[in-house]
Give the backbone structure.
Amino acid sequence: MKRNALVVGINRYPFFKESPTSKARELEVPAKDAEAIARLLDEPGGELAWSVKRLPEDYPDGKPIVSENVVTQAELATAISELLHPKTSHPPDVALLFFAGHGLRRERGTGTEGFLAASDTRLKTSDEKRSGISLSWLREQLLSSPVKKQIVWLDCCHSGELMNFSAEELEQWLQGGDRFLVAASRDDRPANALKHGVLTEVLLEGLDPERQPEGDWISSYSLDIFIEKQLEKKPMLKTQIPLVRQFGSKIKFWQGRKPSPSRDWQCEKTISEFYDLEPERPLHEKAYTTFVNKIATKTAQYGTKVAFTPNGKYFISVGFEVIELRKLSDGEAVRKLEQRTPMQQGYFTGAAISSKGLLAANKIEQKITIWDLRVGKMLHTFSKNFSFSNVVTSQLDFGGHDSVAFSPDGELLAGSDGNVIRLWNPNTGAELPSLKGHSNKVTSLAFSPDGEMLVSGSYDRSLKLWHPTSRKLLATLNGHNGHKDGVYAVAFSPDGRTIASGSNDKTIKLWHPDNPEPYRTLYEHKSGVFCLAISPDGQTLASGSSDKTIKLWGLDTGELLCSLEEHTRAVTSVAFSPKGKVFASGSRDQTVKIWRSRIG
């Protein structure tokens, strides 16, 4: 892949003054900023290598540096044109323009226009040849360029003028090409500098491979998120109101080198003996083997569910007809809570463990049962009113999408019952008023960390946010960028600021609770996404799919960290341990796999 970059840092502005007798507004930082960006781009090798042109350029020790010489408007315009319109039949795959220097905004008719100032630019002039490089001209150069991936970073005052697209221009920007535009400030704001320009400092931090987890791709997506996060940490950046716009797909820069405890996982053990209904009988007996196979065939429709106890020392494995409490240390089953034969009705399709050690399991078309895990005692059984008659039949092929969820304090239990969400007090067994609003079967439920919100996913393709105490519907998340098929899984991040949803449309979408539109979509799965879990530190999202894989994602960046492919059938459940160093996965292949990070 061919990557070209033009890095511009202009300190010299002898004509940039309020009046002929006033002092010129020369700068000290831009050349240093441009050289820092250039060195960062110089570092990668192989197919990630960049061909970097510096402007102005000097060779004091035989190596190129950004100098403090003057750059004329003609030189700057020519360099930009050569970057975006190279005189070759084989243009680069990626073109990057970085500019640090003066920016200005001039009145033009009934509006304004932004400019990049060269050394011969006048602050006040009617001469177009001394006005600077017009940002509307730059937009035209970008739109007409044969380069498919374009990156523009402007660290100068009023650089947000670059984003002032007309309606016609915006339609062109949306039609093709991958573009990543970053402006240091809104069109009516100045840009500030300390040791570096405020934006340049953030770019250098966000692009630094030593600051990013090993193997993670630093990309336009991750840099966008990083800039957003820095707004609260850097007040000067926030006052500038930097603007970021992305069109098309993400653009990759290079991979991080910082060791990451949340990326590298290995399968520690596989547990598959869930259907040993009569352990005293040998499995090699023909009749018993046939009996097991019959159960296994039914099990394959729904798959195994997993959840960890609050202390992280145990986990439950919920098979189609059996629930077992197992030690995390060796996988040994220490208690069977319920065990059924094919002649008995009701199959387990969802499970959750409360902060108080209660287990709730959902049975299709029948009931929800609560146990006290500490003693293995059944406490309550809640009947359900669900009938398949009100469910779109095409969705039933994926069965098993019933859900239960405990509030964080363990005082409230929510369970799906057709297109209704039913609520109980798990300690007393008292039923509370239900939540109604979905038009099709509710498949997934999750409480926010503070217990103030309950999110539900449904075959009707929407997510709904509820206030569980008042029973009020707070919002429906189904904007035009929402899911195109049924929602199968939902999860809240530990800080409550992000909701993840997985769908039969093969995507995962990330939402802010107060916005009906998703802010990011993850596309790597090849089939429906059945289950989701977010690590306790909020860094990693795990997803399981009918494509037989588990994928781990950086929640902040949306980057795919790794894909785990040891299951042989659809993955139906994923759960992190309370400390996040271990997670478990259940599958229609009748196994639970325990995964542990190789690092940390």
Notes: The two ends are 35 Å apart (CA to CA).
